[in-house]
Specification:
Domain TsaA-like: 17-159
Bound molecules: S-adenosyl-L-homocysteine
Order of helices and strands: EEEHEEEEEHEHHEEE
InterPro entries: TrmO-like_N, TrmO_C, UPF0066_cons_site, YaeB-like, YaeB-like_sf, YaeB_N_sf
Shape: globular
Number of helices: 4
Largest sheet: 6 strands, antiparallel, barrel
Pfam family, one: TrmO_N
Protein name: Putative methyltransferase, YaeB/AF_0241 family
Structural class: mainly beta
Strand content: 25-35%
Keywords: Methyltransferase, S-adenosyl-L-methionine, Transferase
Number of domains: 2
CATH class of the largest domain: Mainly Beta
Length: 252
Amino acid sequence: MASTEPKDPDWPKEVHFRPIGRICSPFDEKFGIPRQARLAPAARARLELLPPYDREEAFSGLEGFSHLWLVFVFHQDCLTAGWQPMVRPPRLGGRAKVGVFASRSPYRPNPIGLSAVRYHGLERNQQGLALHLGGVDLLNGTPVLDIKPYVPYADALPDASAGFTAALDDRRWPVVFSDQASQELASADPGGQLDLRALIEQVIGLDPRPGYMDRYPQRDTFAVRLHGCNIHWQIDDQHAMVTRIIPMHSAH
Ligand code: SAH
């Protein structure tokens, strides 16, 4: 086997990539974004392609695939934050540490993310060419570096072992809506096109509060921003209750 010649002057010490597109998602802040792709199927997004990549022929054949891999940049905070060899994954309650390369933390030497998402097709309109996606774990504005089809024969590994994630608590909170929140939901998403009810149920059901919040007093109010609305909720031992859905333009 050929070994890498350390003195090879052509070996790239730095690489430069250019985003091919930009994510338009319901998540304007990191709080509330699911910790992995596909945990919230109602998290729909558009991937808006940038020229010169906004050409239909670059996507021909993709229509037969139900899922895609996205390779993207954790552009918010992570490009400048630096990295640590050990991180505290939120699903270990923020208590235990693992190596950064044993984690899916956004804070890594090269802040590159990888998500398998649902593919709902390509659309050309006045704004340009876009892919419709579902189940994203991506901040609004995320730069995307590459798209590849998810190929089950190679990518699906039913016998894979799950490391420290095997022991995770995948409990979901049942989510209910107060009368006021139900009325506000009806005006925030009148035709249901945003699927805002399902998105709220899935995001809050996953309990986005940091692990240490387990010890917080009950019935504190929390807030998350989805599709430009401030969603308030409270937790008791039984369920999460959505109390308000306030569009940002009228938030006070
Ligand atoms: N599935 C990806 C991402 C897992 S981490 C992977 O395994 O590589 C998911 C978290 O990344 C989200 O909960 C959110 O807090 C954060 N995130 C998503 N988009 C981001 C962005 N553009 N910049 C910084 N952090 C982001």
